[in-house]
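Table S2 (continued). Query chain:
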Amino acid sequence: MIEKKLRALATALVVGATFSAWGQVGNGLDNPDWTEEKEPPPPAFSKDRALPLDMPSFVSVRVGIDPATVSVGKDGVVRYVAVMSNASGNVNAVYEGIRCASDQVKTYARSGTSGQWSLITNPLWQDVNGNQPSKHAFVFARLAACDTRIANRLEDVIKTLQAGQKPRSAKPSF
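Corresponding output:
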């Protein structure tokens, strides 16, 4: 019994040290009092800076993430602007956050062709893999934002977006 508890404690210490060594921020899974930080206002974005996401073939718009807008909060939420453009050149954007620990996304603001942000009055967390009108949050979470249920470091998110592939050290998606 004691040996079993010691083995469990050793495993927990190794896992904790590994996450600490990776430099990843708190994921909230071990904190029942987790609260989201106050999100910053929607950042300026550029269609020209957006790094493309490899979207499913049924998606008719091009979707990219502007790397200048990506941030990883101490609350474990990866915030970003997804820029969408269609064949006729119309550009829309959404300012969102992904909480990797719960595999959820929240839309804070939307921007239409005018480029002006419209804040969402009462943004709610929704499942990344739920019935969303666009699958870009799911693609971004699996590609770059999350490593299993942990938010990646900002540098790793940007490098992965630039490379367009998962980092070698990434664990399988959940």
